[in-house]
UniProtKB/TrEMBL annotation:
One of its GO terms (biological process) is regulation of mRNA stability. It comes from the Bacteria. It comes from Undibacterium fentianense. InterPro entries: Ca-reg_mRNA-binding_domain, CSD, CSD_CS, CSP_DNA-bd, Excalibur_Ca-bd_domain, NA-bd_OB-fold. Residues 2-67 form the CSD domain. This is Cold shock domain-containing protein. Keywords: Phosphoprotein. Its main location: cytoplasm. One of its GO terms (cellular component) is cytosol. One of its GO terms (molecular function) is mRNA 3'-UTR binding. It is found in: Cytoplasm.
Amino acid sequence: MRFEGTLSKWNDDRGFGFIKPKHGDQDIFVHISAFPKVGTRPRIGENLSFEFQVGQDRKREAKNLKCLDRSTTKFDRQRLTNRTKSPVSSKPLLNRIVSLAFFTMIGLFAYDQFSRRASFEHDVGVAESENEDVSQSAVATANSRRFQCDGRQHCSQMTSCEEAKYFLKNCPNPKMDGDYDGIPCEQNLCTSVFSN
């Protein structure tokens, strides 16, 4: 036999309360497990239809509850079930998407920084190389104006280490590098490590 009543007391933290029946004066204990599995949490003042049983402690306990104030059509139950399930089931997917986006942004940032650094180092290297080529070209041009291949071949005919280097590098048949190490006149003109 079914009875009707109103939820008069409810402890949401502990999951139980009491129903005040429409006919009768004694409140009936109700546990959260007696409520339908879908829908909102129980609330005080809610109209209920229920059966009851006598528990081991000889107290009446409500069972097979129906919430009369709530819509219980199959469509509504399914919608409520989907609504309660979707945030839980989509949470891991959302976390994965956020994590993937985060790591993708870090990867793109790192790649951008690496590309900029590599490009900068390349540009600096090219500029240094061009500057070195320009300075060597300028020295060679200046030396070619100061020195000219005129048939001299020996260290004794040179006036400076710089002149000896010019003749060794640019003139035919120089006889100034006896040990073939690229440094001419090591015993007299180009003896110092700092010689030009």
